[in-house]
Amino acid sequence: MAAKKDIELGRHGEQIAEAYLQAEGMRIIERNWRCRHGEIDIIAEEGPTLVVVEVKTRSGRSHGTALESVRPAKLARLRMLAAKWLATQPQTFETVRVDVIALERFAGDFALRHVRGAI
Amino acid sequence: MAVARTRSVALVGVTGRTVEVEADVGNGLAGIHLIGLPDTALSEARDRVRSAVVNSNYPWPDARIIVSLFPASLPKRGSQFDLAIAMSVMAAAGVVPTARIAETFFLGELGLDGRIRPVRGVLPAILGAAQHGDVTVVVPAANSAEAVLVPDVKVVPMAHLRQLVEWLRRGDEPPELPIEELDEPPEPTTEPVADLADVVGQPVARRALEVCAAGGHNLWMLGPPGCGKTLLAERLPTLLPDLELDHALEVTAIHSVAGILPPSAPLMSRPPFVSPHHTASVASIIGGGSTIVRPGAVSLAHRGVLFMDEAPEFPRHVLDALRQPLESGRVTVSRSIGSVTFPARFMLVLAANPCPCAQAEDPGETCKCSPTIKRRYLGRLSGPLLDRVDMKVTVARSSRRELMADRQFVETSKTVAERVHAARERATKRLAGTPWRTNAEIPSSLLHADYRPSPAAMKPMTSCLDSGTLTARGLDRVVRVSWTLADLADKPTPGEAETTAALSFWLGVRS
Questions:
Q1: pTM of the model
Q2: Domain of life, per the record (chain B) (predicted)?
Q3: E strands within B99-184?
């Protein structure tokens, strides 16, 4: 299981990502939505588009970069989760997009990369 | 972001085709995608290249990388593209200057630590690259001795990725060729340990072997076991002259593709001698393979000797598969991935026992085979195949007295090789200006136009043609052998003596 400090790192990363997305002009709909198939870190909306965001935070590069740790299988699962979430909602969206936000800690500070439309 | 381009070579059979390798480092999820019909070994290049770059302490772009190999329709296989892929990615990422790699060819497999490892088929690949004129080719250091055989190509041997990147960054002359000096093997690589003088008691077969060597003809030896058929065949290479440079490059290219080039002798200057076992399959003789088409024994024996000992023991379809290469001098292997043509101009030497029990018919010995069994045994050598064999000799077991008497007539390989050499020179002089060098290569049309013996000399053949013992192809072969006999006797054209002798060699075995 993930150690306590890893969970804290992930929480912290998600907060940074949320603040960043709001600064980018997105409206946050929900955070850490769970169902029996998995979890969506952030659900946001940008104009007519529903944005499903995966936040990946790494404390360094010793185990590879944060961005490359998100594999196609993970993105496919997020897409499936987006459909599950939409099924619970009354509202509809024109398009659905999956984004990845990769955070890496360098010397106490975080470097952020945002990939729009990963699939 | 950035795109960078470089070049490498893909092998189709024994010909190299230029492949452009492009890398695009751009936005998207980090990862590397390889497109352009790669096979499994090439797909794994993604992991090898990444580890090699990272372990050489160069940055690996944390971005979406697409590597494309052109032409996209040509299937590419093997690991020799590793270096070109690494270079294009590193140039697109700004690690090495793009302009420096655009015109250069890269060949080599990468180790996980960044070592550049040797690959097979370097010689034909560089021959393919050389078609673009004055080119620079980066090769693994271990392949450098083979690579420098091609004239007018600047070869840059490299042992490690770091060494290569530093060179590209500095932009100066390549480091001095660290070609490991060969331990002086320009002496014939197969030093004749076997000598024709070892074979006592077979004067006719020795003469046939000499004619064979002089003209590049095919030979069939029929005789009981123990009379020296195998010994004779194994001594044929000792009578053959060294290969000329262009032929040596052809032979070396084939052996390089097959991956059996001896590292100590990168240039095969001696004619090869290939002796497959009689359990060989068609694919091993002709060439084949489902994903990678490899040259078979006929191509490995190109410009040399293919010796099939115990020929009737070979499966019949294997023997009959030899018919096409014997006629055309090349062999086309067709598979679902495409067809590949290999050169296959070889001298065929067949050896056969007269019957399966292999007891001689000499008095005092007991052959238990019935005539039907004997006929069936030799019947495995099909008529069309034997029609392509220029010379057929029956070798008999020699008596003690014959052996003793023949002892004073045996000649060493060196003596005979000198006569063969002189005869070949005469043939080459006569054939100057044509692509052929031996009498066996002269095409049929030319044989009847420019090289037709006098009507008087043709007389013994015409009667055989009339009676049906000689086919039109057989006639061509008899005429070719008679030219060789004339060359050996230093005559300007074959006379009746030569044509009669050639005809008797052709008819040789009649059971």
A1: 0.77
A2: Bacteria
A3: 105-106, 109-110, 116-117, 135-140, 153-158
